[in-house]
TrEMBL record:
This is Nucleobase:cation symporter-2, NCS2 family. It is found in: Cell membrane. GO terms for molecular function: xanthine transmembrane transporter activity. It comes from the Bacteria. GO terms for cellular component: plasma membrane. Belongs to the nucleobase:cation symporter-2 (NCS2) (TC 2.A.40) family. Keywords: Cell membrane, Membrane, Transmembrane, Transmembrane helix, Transport. It is a multi-pass membrane protein.
Length: 450
């Protein structure tokens, strides 16, 4: 592709950096760190919860956090780079950041406490479940046939909308915070939001591309005089933390994998949706083989992560929302982010600097990040013919998906696997969209509703 053609392609897609572009290393580090700031709270939150469930001491808890960063870095590189021949490729080859999802916390609690498997049982079940997900990846292609634009657009829109409560929990200071909703948190989030908004609209070059990171840094600095940051935690953190293989042991007892089956089924469904969204926001045409490679990337990463002390890996949707906002879809930047995560895992003091950031800072950025994902879905739906059939699919999926997101307790008492499958608004809405897409026959001659 010639220079003029490359420039034209970037203009048409709205991206400053395409998937194959390699920004200068300093630029890549800045943009990579921007991805880390966006994902950091999600990466470290699950190991902290798992440590609490297992009753681990401070030293073992700190190790779990470092292990989560290491595993996230490795998994992000696998998914972003992609390895192997096309038919058996592992990793989609698009910019992604990976980490352990909250959906795996309930089955982890069941294994560690109810079933008495402890941490060894949890890690063993994670690996066996990853093998299950790898096998499931070979059955994704038939699923892709019913991922029509009406289903894809609905899932992408739902993905952005269902993350909004998360953003506003961050703005409020985090779930469980005794000062939840303190006006000071809202003020900091509002400043971050406005900085990102104005830079994204009016700034040029790096100031535009790094708008999210700049906004977060501004919020971080403002939080210091407001007394929202406890720097004593940095002093108490170790300088170096080397990884250990199977520090807590690994128990491959098959009975422990049962609670994880539903979690991995949900992961497959959500990963397909995330891959579709990635294709949309990066301007990439993904084949069913590419989607399958993305699911395999999740599975292989989830099988490797427990060996270093982390739970199953899944692609983070918040980083997908970062792409259209920053106009950076560079695969190289995501790989650099993975390398930085690995380095941060080795130096706990560095990771602690980020971990003490108030959640309200990230909340200010979350509104725009998740909002842009929702708009990507709406953009896809704008190309869909709004017949009675398509309207029913969209309305039902968004209604149920958002309903579960806002009121998850409604489905908490569903029996067995149904509780897990419909426990997430994204998976619930996706399942409804897929089922209705099959049940409600498409009539090419059906008129569009005015």
């Amino acid at each position: 592709m010639g220079k003029n053609e490359s420039t034209e392609a970037k203009t048409m897609s709205g991206l400053i950096y395409q998937v194959s572009d390699k920004p200068k290393i300093l630029t890549a580090i800045i943009l990579g760190f921007q991805n880390i700031l966006t994902a950091f709270s999600g990466i470290v939150a699950v190991p902290l919860i798992i440590a609490g469930i297992a009753g681990l001491n401070v030293v073992d808890t700190a190790y779990l956090v470092s292990a989560a960063l290491l595993a996230s870095g490795i998994a992000s590189i696998i998914q972003s780079r992609g390895f192997g021949p096309k038919k058996f490729r592992v990793g989609v080859g698009l910019p992604t950041v990976m980490g352990t999802d909250f959906g795996f916390v309930p089955p982890a609690n069941t294994i560690i406490n109810t079933m008495g498997g402890g941490m060894a049982g949890y890690f063993g079940a994670s690996i066996l479940g990853a093998i299950f997900e790898f096998v499931l990846s070979f059955f994704v292609k038939p699923l892709m046939k019913i991922f029509t634009p009406v289903v894809t657009g609905t899932v992408i829109a739902l993905m952005g909308m269902s993350m909004m409560p998360v953003a506003f929990d961050w703005i409020g200071g985090g779930v469980g915070n005794p000062n939840y909703g303190d006006p000071m948190y809202i003020l900091v989030a509002a400043i971050v939001f406005l900085v990102i908004l104005l830079l994204n609209r009016y700034a040029k070059g790096m100031l535009n591309t790094a708008a999210v990171m700049i906004g977060i840094v501004v919020g971080y600095i403002i939080s210091i005089p407001l007394g929202l940051i406890d720097f004593s935690q940095i002093a108490s953190a170790d300088w170096i933390q080397l990884p250990e293989i199977a520090r807590f042991g690994i128990d491959f007892n098959p009975k422990f994998v049962v609670p994880f089956i539903a979690g991995y089924l949900v992961t497959v469904i959500e990963t397909v949706g995330v891959m579709e969204t990635l294709g949309e926001v990066t301007g990439s045409h993904l084949t069913s083989d590419d989607i399958v490679a993305g699911v395999r990337g999740d599975a292989v990463s989830s099988a490797l992560c427990p060996f270093v002390g982390s739970g199953p890996a899944q692609t983070f949707s918040q980083n997908v929302g970062l792409i259209p906002l920053t106009k950076c879809a560079s695969q190289f930047v995501a790989i650099v982010a993975g390398v930085i995560l690995i380095l941060m895992s080795l130096f706990p003091k560095l990771s602690t600097i980020v971990s003490i950031m108030p959640s309200c800072v990230l909340g200010g950025a979350g509104i725009l990040m998740f909002g842009t994902v929702a708009i990507s879905g709406i953009k896809t739906l704008s190309k869909v013919k709004f017949t009675n059939r398509n309207l029913l699919i969209i309305a039902s999926s968004l209604g149920i998906g958002l309903g579960v997101t806002f009121r998850p307790d409604v489905v908490a008492q569903l029996p067995g696997i149904l509780s897990s499958l419909f426990g997430s608004g994204i998976s619930a809405g996706t399942i409804v969209a897929l089922i209705l897409s099959v049940i409600l026959k498409d009539d090419p001659n059906e008129a569009e509703i005015d």
